[in-house]
């Protein structure tokens, strides 16, 4: 389960995410030192945020690294400002020598702002030379800085539509405006669809990059001050298991063709090939004849070209969560194990990663103390006005009330269970705690609570964790989360969810 704050954090991974797959490659004897850095496209008097990362391609982690940057060409067209970090950097003429030690996550990236000078001319190029050492190895590469003509594609910040499970709906938010002073020669639309609202279009100029995005390319010109609408809305089909009342988030953003080419043309981290449709071509309406751009173009304000499209699921397809408790026997001083849990009785799938509150709360029986706690649970204060961040205190012992999340999205017949080891400090008779499920739209309230009972007697060296509900199937990998992360990682250098949710730019069609 992810809160909105977690999804914002994931969106931040966009600038570093494209080398995740490479860094997860199995280690072998000759794993090389590699440098992750993207080419830069920037308009005069505008700034881009960039990074340089060093890593071993396998599982080995660097303990330290050095970077030597050759700024001799870049200094003619741009200035570079380092973002404060753990790197120690020393300038010397047109070179910059930087050193860093690894923390628990490895050697940090060297992040920097690059600002093109006012007199830089679109079409100019400069090479930023990079040499790295670490782990007894050396590597080098260069970043091409290209001065581009600035355009400003803008879209609506948010859009909403309703749809029933199994239905096909057309996504709103299909209008783009060129708010800049220069004609945008072509555009690229990127759809990152929710895994429960899959793209089902067949347009010949739209490619499906599996698990990542739908990419639609347009060759026509977008004139300054004009708005354009898709000739047809992008169709998505709601999963039959989508839960009534939930909201499926789809992300649509617009890029210049050169900004998109910068992403897909990187030789070190190529995107997988997409599968184009075989039907008619999707177009932008009321456009003049297309022209070729004489110089590269970049979007100078990427905080206003991103639309979050929420699909509110209607119909009558709720999910019924049933709480599951357990019973244990022991005496004062004993440690017993109990299990709290839930089962999804359907008919809908529970999109647990969207929930911002616990799917289950567990009240610890009086006279006992939780000394070992499931890593999917954390102390919970139901009266607090502050957001609940379970990952900050996951598995923390000693609380009276816990909130628990789901490791996946439970389908009908699937649930979750959470083991607790309790120390019995006082027991004059049976004592009980409570397991409570929490899900908006749950159609049955009479199965939302179950007891955790501690009875006197026995040796007390263990508990009967099966209890009232028996064995629960455990949710597996959250494929929706994985797919969502994949889509967000694709956003390298071109905006993201955080700016889409925070921006307050007024959109005028």
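-> sequence recovered:
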């Amino acid at each position: 389960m992810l809160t909105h704050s977690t999804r914002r954090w994931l969106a931040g991974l966009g600038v570093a995410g494209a080398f995740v797959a490479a860094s997860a490659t199995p280690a072998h004897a000759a794993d090389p030192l590699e440098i992750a850095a993207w080419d830069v496209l920037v308009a005069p008097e505008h700034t881009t945020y960039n990074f340089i990362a060093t890593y071993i391609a396998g599982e080995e982690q660097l303990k330290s690294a050095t970077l030597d940057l050759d700024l001799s060409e870049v200094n003619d067209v741009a200035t570079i400002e380092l973002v404060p970090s753990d790197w120690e950097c020393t300038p010397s003429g047109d070179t910059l020598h930087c050193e860093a030690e690894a923390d628990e996550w490895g050697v940090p990236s060297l992040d920097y702002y690059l600002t093109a000078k006012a007199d830089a001319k679109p079409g100019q190029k400069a090479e930023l030379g990079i040499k790295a050492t670490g782990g007894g190895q050396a590597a080098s590469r260069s970043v091409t800085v290209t001065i581009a003509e600035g355009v400003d594609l803008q879209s609506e910040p948010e859009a909403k539509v309703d749809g029933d499970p199994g239905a096909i709906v057309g996504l709103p938010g299909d209008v783009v405006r060129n708010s800049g002073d220069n004609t945008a020669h072509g555009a690229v639309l990127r759809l990152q669809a929710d895994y429960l609202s899959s793209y089902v279009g067949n347009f010949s100029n739209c490619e499906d990059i599996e698990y990542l995005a739908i990419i639609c390319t347009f060759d026509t010109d977008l004139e300054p001050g004009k708005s354009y609408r898709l000739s047809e809305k992008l169709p998505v089909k709601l999963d039959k298991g989508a839960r009534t009342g939930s909201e499926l988030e789809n992300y649509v953003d617009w890029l210049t063709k050169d900004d998109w080419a910068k992403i897909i043309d990187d030789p070190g981290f190529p995107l997988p090939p997409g599968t184009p449709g075989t039907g008619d071509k999707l177009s932008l309406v009321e456009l003049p004849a297309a022209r070729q751009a004489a110089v590269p173009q970049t979007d100078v304000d990427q905080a206003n070209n991103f639309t979050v499209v929420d699909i509110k699921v209607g119909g009558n397809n709720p999910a019924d969560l049933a709480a599951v408790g357990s019973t244990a026997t022991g005496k004062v001083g004993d440690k017993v194990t109990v299990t709290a849990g839930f089962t999804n009785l359907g008919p809908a799938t529970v999109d647990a990663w969207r929930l911002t509150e616990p799917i289950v709360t567990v009240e610890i029986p009086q006279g006992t103390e939780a000394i070992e706690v499931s890593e999917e649970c954390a102390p919970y204060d139901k009266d607090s006005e502050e957001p609940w961040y379970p990952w900050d205190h996951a598995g923390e012992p000693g609380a009276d009330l816990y909130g628990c999340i789901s490791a996946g999205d439970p389908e009908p017949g699937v649930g979750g269970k959470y083991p607790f080891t309790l120390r019995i400090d006082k027991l004059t008779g049976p004592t009980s705690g409570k397991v409570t499920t929490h899900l908006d739209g749950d159609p049955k309230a009479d199965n939302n609570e179950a007891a955790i009972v501690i009875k006197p007697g026995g040796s007390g060296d263990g508990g009967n964790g099966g209890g009232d509900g028996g064995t629960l199937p455990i949710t597996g990998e959250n494929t929706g989360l994985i797919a969502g992360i994949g889509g967000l990682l694709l956003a390298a250098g071109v905006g993201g969810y955080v700016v889409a949710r925070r921006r307050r730019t007024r959109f005028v069609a």
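The first strand starts at residue 33 and ends at 37.
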